[in-house]
Automatic annotation (TrEMBL):
Superkingdom, natural source: Bacteria
Residues in the Cytoplasmic compartment per record: 24-390
Stated role: Modulates cellular lipopolysaccharide (LPS) levels by regulating LpxC, which is involved in lipid A biosynthesis. May act by modulating the proteolytic activity of FtsH towards LpxC. May also coordinate assembly of proteins involved in LPS synthesis at the plasma membrane.
Name of the protein: Lipopolysaccharide assembly protein B
Subcellular location: Cell inner membrane
Keyword annotations: Cell inner membrane, Cell membrane, Iron, Membrane, Metal-binding, Repeat, TPR repeat, Transmembrane, Transmembrane helix
Amino acid sequence: MEFELWWLLALPITFGLGWLASRLDLRQWRRESELKRDAPLSYFRGLNFLLSEQQDKAIDAFIEAVTADPNTVDLHFALGNLFRRRGEYERAVRVHQNLLARGDLPSAERQRAQIALAQDFFKAGLLDRAESVYTALATSPYQSEALAALLQIHERTKEWPRAIDIAGQLERLGAGSYGRQIAHYWCEVAMQCQQSHDLTGALDALDKAVRVHPQAVRPWQLRAGIAQQQGDAAQALEHLRHIAQIQPDFTALAALDMARLFRETGQAQAGRDWLLAKLQDYPAIDLLDAVLQLEADASERYHLALTYLQTHKSLLAARRVLDQTSTALSPEPARLALAQALDGALKNRQRYRCAACGFEARNYTWHCPACQGWETYPPRRTEELQLLAV
């Protein structure tokens, strides 16, 4: 009888424990269901705000979604990207660092969070931190992206030997041809050597620039500068004339220096004829100016400028004709008024324009400060390019 009594007591106890466990499971299930239901609603609401370009509301919705389900990794990335786009780099860094602090994050998602964190640092201007993260990713599936970012960092910090090494790695990975950029990096090395009075090192760097990109113009221009520094005007002239052989369009950039060197070496007449031949084949206002500098006869200078204006009807050419007009043909008050009118019209038309991004510069530059492109400026001013396009 005693055994049967305990058996009867065990039945209701077991039933009660089972009922209690089911209630707890049901409550947990309901909580999880609510979280799973709320998170997608917040997520889709955030997407809707994002598509409507309401970024503030989108961020609030994504924060709500992340709070409801902290394990949703993609929501963290979406939120971090939104912060970065808005320029809130500290908040973006915090989101991605929180992801990396999770011990259960899979390897692929960890690398994804690292690349996102590196982008945050880069955008925030924390280049040393960005460099350390990108360097750690240089052997990951994000290798190409990491190396491309490291190349930008080394350009900005003017660490040209490192930039040369990274560009070579990208080329070997099949990411494209970097010969032109590497040639410019060697030119930058040469300029640093020249500033420290290491002409041997500068010439060696320029030799490497020519080897990596035989059509490069800039190394010959820098070689000419070193030759002039050493007092060898004839050698400097030969270096500049070589530019006309490899890239004739760029002769205009060196034309005025060539005119001066022709005069210094006693070749004014021969130089005038040589430059005039180049002017006929590759018309440019700088070439015309060089020819006019070497022409001794005033009436012939006027004739040359007028002929150029007749074939290349530009304000720049008109200004050159006016410069060569004698006071007998045009009284001084009239010439002054015309000159002022032309100068006003030419104020924004004598710039060089980047072919990649359209940024304009007063002087020719090999590196665009806006898009960071190398050799993206045509060697003619904007008005000349517009005339050629007609």
